[in-house]
Amino acid sequence: MNESILAVRKAIDELDLDGIAAIVEKCLEENLSPEEVIEEGISKGLETVGRKFEEGEYFLADLIMAGEVAKEVMPILKAKMRHGDDNSKGKVILATVAGDIHEIGKNIVGLILSANGFEVIDLGVDVSAEKIIDTAKTTGARLLGLSALLTTMVGSIREVVDASRAAGLRDKVKIVIGGACTSENLCEEMGADAYGETAIDALRIFTSYT
Amino acid sequence: MHSKERIINTFEGKPVDRVPTFCAMVEDRTFNEALGKPLIPQEWLLTNPLARYVLDRWGKQLTRPVFQVELNRALEKRIRAQVELGFDSVWAILDETFIVLDSETMARFTGSIFNIQPDGYGNMTYMYRGPGIKSREDFESWPYWPDVDDLAHRTYRFFRKMVSKYGNRTCLFGQGPAYGIQESLLWALGFEKMPVWIRREKDLVKRYIDFNEEICLKTNMALLDAGVPVILQSDDFAFKSGPLMNPRLIDELFGPSYRRIIKAVHDRGAKYVLHSCGDNTLLFDTFISWGVDGLHAYENTSNVDIFSEKKLHGDKVTIIGGVGVDYLLTDRSKDEEVDAEVKKLIAELGPGGRFVIAPVHSLSTIPAQKLRVMVDAVARYGAYPISLS
Question: Which residues of B48-79 are buried (b: 16+ CB within 10 A; e: fewer)?
C-alpha cells in the first residue's frame, strides 16, 4: 500500500484535524487519484474509527471529530475530480420527524454519511411526511433516514411509511429509523426497513443498500 | 430523626433510622396535583395573538420583572409540594438563567438558544434549539453574559427565604442559576461542533469553562450563606449509550473546576451532589475522584446498573435514585408495582447505607399520587436494619 494513503488512514484514525490537509495534498502531488484517496484512505480510516467506537475505545465526540477530519479535505479532493465524475454512493434524505426538534443524532449520522461519500439531503427538524416524500420524488433519493427522540412522536414515522406507499414509492425507497425512542421492535411496528442504534450502524445499513 | 440529619448521616456513612428519600424536582402538573391546586394553563401565551405580540415586542424587558418572578413563585410551589409529599430532601433550581427573546425563543445567558413550547399538559416548557455561539466573534459579542455578583445576590435572597420557610421540614438540595459547566459548553457551541472547538479554540474554551466555574462557585457560596446544606449540580455528561467524550478528556477539561468547586463547598461543611443523565458507568470513578458526596446519575433507561454500582462504589459515594419515571412513576403503572419496586430497591440497595431512594429524573408526566405511593412504601419497608428478603 502507498505510504501516503496509509498516512491518510492514520490521520483519520488519530483524528488529526490540523495535519490531514498536507497529507492529502501530498497524495495528489504523487498523482494518486482523488477517488483512490477517498476509497483507500479516508473510508478505510473511518472504518477503523467506527470499529474503535463500537469497541468502546472511541467516544461519540471522537466519531464526530473523525467526520470533521474527513470533511476538512473533501473540498480539496472534489476540486481535483474530473468534471462529470460522480463518486457519490447515493442520495440520502435525513429528517427529524414531525413534532420532534432533536437533531444532534441526525446531524452526526449526516456527518458520517457525507464523509463516506453519500450525498446527504438534510431536511432539518419537525419535517412533515409530505415534505419528505416530495423531496424523494424531486431528488430521486431512495434512501430515507428518520430520526425521533420523543416517544410521543413515533407515529410520525408511520406517516412517512404510509405516505411513501400512497405515492407509489414504498418498494423503491428504504426507510431507516434511529433515535432515543426507536428500536428494532418499533421499526417492525412502523413498517420501516431497518433500525440503527448508532451512526456507524446507519452507515453500515445505508452502504448495504447501495 | 430529622430529615436533614438522616440525609447528612447517609452521606457520611453513619447510621440512620430509615432509607431517606429525595425528590428530583416536580413539574407543573405534579406540584399542582400535590398541592390540590387546579392546573392553570399557560399555553395560551403561545397561541393568543395579543400575548404573542407582547412577547415578541417586550419579551426581553419582561423577563426579569415578570417571567422570572413568576418562575420563582412556581419554584416555591415545587418546594412546598415536595415537602408536603413527605420527601426528606428536595431539589430546587433557581432558573434565573434565561432571557425571553420572542414568543418562541429564549436564550440562556451562557450562550444557548431554546424553543418555548407547550409541554402537553397545558403549560409551557422549553427545549434546546441550538448553539448561540457559532464563531469566535459570537463569543466575544454575546450580549447576555450575566453579572455574576448579581446572580449570587439573587440566589442568596431566594434561598434565604426558602431555608427559613422549609429548612426545618426538609433537607434542601440547592442549585443556583448555574447549569453544569460541561453541558453549558455543549449547549453554547453545539455538540456537533464542540469537539472541534476543544481542539482548535483552546483558549476560548478555557475562558468559557473558567467563567462558568466562577458562576458555580459564587452562586454555591450564596446558597451556603443562605443556609442550604447540600449543593446539587446538574451536568449531563452521558447519552443513553455512554459518555459523550473520553472520560480522560472530561477529567482534563472539567475536573480542575469541579475539584475546586467541591473543595470550596466541603470547606464550608456542606455536601455536594452531582446529577448526570445517561449511562455514566465509565465516569463514576472520575466523579468520585472530584470529591462528590452523592450521585444522582443512574437513569434506568440507559445501560447503567445501579445494583452493580452500589457494590462497586457504595462505600465511597451515596447512590441516589432507583425509581424509574418511564413507567413506574406514570399514570400507566399500578400502585402495587411502585410498592414492589420500592421494596426491591430497599432490599438490595439499603443494606450498608449510603443509599437515598428517589425518582431517577424529573418529568412532566409524573402523577403526585404515585410519588405518595413511593413515599408510603419507603415508610413501610425502609426502616433500618433492613430485614427484607
Answer: eeeebeebeeebbebbeeebbeeebebbbbbb
Question: Domain residue spans in chain B?
Answer: 3-25+87-96+146-381
Give the nearest partner residue to A65 out of B120, B195, B241, using CB atoms: B195
Check if CATH label 3.30.70.240 holds for domain A3-80.
no
Whether the CB-CB separation of B75 and B92 falls below 8 Å is answered with yes
Residue B145 DSSP SS3: coil
Q: CB of B266 within 8 A of CB of B244?
A: no
What pTM was computed for the model? 0.86
Residues of A in contact with B120 (CB under 8 A): 152
Grid cell in block for residue B339: 410498592
Alpha helices in chain B (DSSP H): 3-11, 28-35, 44-47, 49-62, 69-84, 136-141, 148-166, 181-189, 194-200, 202-225, 247-267, 284-290, 306-313, 335-349, 368-381
The alpha carbon of residue B238 is apart from the nearest alpha carbon of chain A, in Å, by 10
In terms of DSSP bridges, do strands A143-147 and A91-96 run parallel, antiparallel, or are they unpaired?
A: parallel
Residue range B1-48, pLDDT digits in tens: 999 999 999 999 999 999 999 998 888 888 889 999 887 777 777 788
Q: Which residue has the cell 476543544?
A: B198
- Separation between Cα atoms, residue A135 and residue A145, nearest integer Å: 13
Chain A: closest CA distance from residue B239 (Å): 9
Report the run of H or E that residue B246 belongs to, with start and end: none
For residue A147, CA distances in Å to A94, A187, A195, A197, A198 come to 8, 12, 10, 11, 11
- pLDDT exceeds 60 at position A84: no
* CATH code given to domain A91-208: 3.40.50.280
The reply to whether B71 touches chain A by the CB within 8 Å rule is: no
The CATH code belonging to domain B3-25+87-96+146-381 is: 3.20.20.210
Q: How many CB atoms lie within 10 A of CB B320?
A: 33
Q: Where are the CATH 3.40.50.280 domain residues in chain A?
A: 91-208
